[in-house]
Amino acid sequence: MKGITVVVDDFINRLVANKELNKNPAIDAGRKSSPAPYLKFQVSQMVCWVTGGPCKYTGKTMKESHVHLNISEKEWGVMAKEFKKSLDKFKVPAAEQKELFDIVGTTKADIVVRK
């Protein structure tokens, strides 16, 4: 779990600071209503759970958590690039990166609401 939390911490910091994402008023408002420590905890729990770890994710569904953020296809791409930067920074092996991106890819339809 420690490795997951380190990567997620860096990833959420990148998302919160990303100027392109914060141009979306709904994302900017969402960041203010859900503090970074809360997001880091929820995302760490979810990643641990979906990768077969001992955690149990009890948060909202991806659709419930993101529908109000009005996320575009372009913003999804920005998020994916930031995730890749965090994975690379901590030298996550290619096989694990592929597994994580495959998992993340299954959530896209629930997160992206506009082209």
Number of discrete helical segments: 8
CATH C-level name: Mainly Alpha
| H/E topology pattern | HHHHHEHHHE
Termini, distance in Å?
A: 34 Å
C-alpha Rg (nearest Å): 13 Å
As a percent range, the share of strand residues is: under 5%
Total discrete domains: 1
Tell me the overall shape.
Answer: globular
Order of strands across the biggest sheet?
1-2
Mean model confidence by pLDDT:
93
List low-pLDDT spans: none
Main sheet? 2 strands, parallel
CATH architectural designation: Orthogonal Bundle
SS-based structural class?
A: mainly alpha
The fold-level CATH name is Globin-like
State the total count of DSSP E strands.
2
Report the CATH superfamily: Globins
Helix proportion: over 70%
Please explain how this structure is put together.
The chain has 115 residues and is mainly alpha-helical. It has a single domain, classed as Globins (Globin-like, Orthogonal Bundle). The mean pLDDT is 93. It has a two-stranded parallel sheet. The termini are far apart.
List the helices and strands and how they pair.
Layout: H1 2-17, H2 19-22, H3 25-33, H4 36-50, H5 62-66, E1 71-72, H6 73-89, H7 94-105, H8 108-111, E2 112-114
Parallel strand pairs: 1-2
Helix pairs in contact: 1-4, 1-6
Keywords:
single chain; 115 residues; mainly alpha; two-stranded parallel ribbon
